[in-house]
Design brief:
With 184 residues, the protein is an alpha+beta fold. It contains four helices and six strands. The strands form two sheets. A four-stranded antiparallel sheet has the order 3-4-6-5, with helices on one face. The chain has a two-stranded antiparallel ribbon with strand order 1-2.
Length: 184
């Protein structure tokens, strides 16, 4: 039963890590290199993340600079950014690409906060789904006679405590991201 609880915790931890990665890709008005994580460039027939073919830096608070190691990839990177959903036009000067993040409007901030809330809720749904699977396994173990009714009740209580802990962690991440978006 301890393995089941440990496995459940590991799966929930991965769900929280996934939410954290999603939050990192949300544009909050500041330059953040992780916004490029989902963008890939067709580099010699292979979909390659920008960070693997260029140096990405933040020279100013609202500017992201992409300097490819092979200057022939400048046009490819520029095109990949243009067709992506980040909503920023790249400036290509022949050596580097600059992404200048415009200040967000109040309306756009509220839209982004709604997206963040949805991401957080999706994360909590995933955590609760993992809880449900674990409790079903406990019930199956009880039915098979592997554990007693008391063990099942204790296991369910531990799983619920773990679930509450990870849901609270997601709530904390959400609040921090919302604060970041609204304070800029």
């Amino acid at each position: 039963m301890n393995n089941l609880i440990k496995n459940t915790e590991e799966r929930m931890d991965k769900s929280v890590a996934s939410v954290t990665r999603e939050f990192a890709t949300v544009r909050a008005g500041r330059a953040n290199a992780s916004i490029l994580d989902r963008i890939t460039v067709d580099y010699y027939g292979v979909a390659t993340p920008i960070q693997q073919i260029a140096t990405v830096s933040v020279p100013e608070a609202r500017t992201l600079q992409i300097q490819p190691w092979d200057t022939t990839t400048l046009k490819l990177i520029e095109k990949a950014i243009q067709v992506s959903d980040i909503g920023i036009n790249p400036n290509n000067d022949g050596r580097v690409i600059r992404l200048i993040f415009p200040p967000l409007t109040e309306e756009r901030r509220k839209e982004i906060v709604k997206d963040v809330k949805k991401m957080a809720e999706d994360g909590k749904v995933a955590v609760r789904s993992i809880r449900r699977d674990a409790i079903e396994k406990l019930k199956a173990m009880k039915k098979a006679g592997e554990i007693t009714e008391d063990d099942q009740a204790n296991g369910e209580k531990k799983i619920q405590n773990v679930t509450d802990k990870y849901c609270a962690e997601i709530d904390t991440l959400q609040a921090a991201k919302e604060k970041e978006i609204l304070e800029i």
